[in-house]
Amino acid sequence: MAVHLLFNIEETVAVILFGVGFTMLLLHKNLIKKIMGMNIMDTAVYLFLAAKGYIQGRAVPIELNGIREAAAYINPVPSGLVLTGIVVSVSTTALMLALTIRLYERYGSLDLDEILTQAKEEEKT
């Protein structure tokens, strides 16, 4: 079992990173820490996709030296997914941070429980 985990070290690290990010997302009340957890989870998924898309001994999918066989190149789809995911992740993070700033300006706290308590009090009045 341990040999299999060491053989697939990239996948193992990706799963551990995803677990760390998911734990941060669930256990922390601070909104900034939740955003950091989400970014760690994103990074873990990108690492996993990049590790699955790489094949030892193959080249990037750019025609080199007249070689046209598909077996000589890695699959370009995982790389494209990672690049697209990074763009979406940056946009989502920017939106989450902007909303967090607005919440802080309104409620004076980054603690999710405190924000919810204050919002319920405002709703009653």
From TrEMBL:
Task: Tell me which InterPro entries the record gives.
Answer: CPA3_antiporter_subunitC (IPR050601), NUOK/Mnh_C1-like (IPR039428)
- This protein's UniProt keywords: Cell membrane, Membrane, Transmembrane, Transmembrane helix
Q: Which domain of life is it from?
A: Bacteria
Membrane topology, as annotated, equals: Multi-pass membrane protein
Give the GO cellular component terms, alphabetically: plasma membrane
Q: Spell out where the chain crosses the membrane.
A: 6-27, 39-57, 77-99
Keyword Transmembrane among record annotations: yes
Where in or outside the cell? Cell membrane
- Main subcellular localisation: membrane
Family the UniProt entry places it in: Belongs to the CPA3 antiporters (TC 2.A.63) subunit C family.
Q: Which PANTHER family match?
A: ANTIPORTER SUBUNIT MNHC2-RELATED
Q: What is this protein called?
A: Multisubunit sodium/proton antiporter MrpC subunit
Organism name: Hungatella effluvii
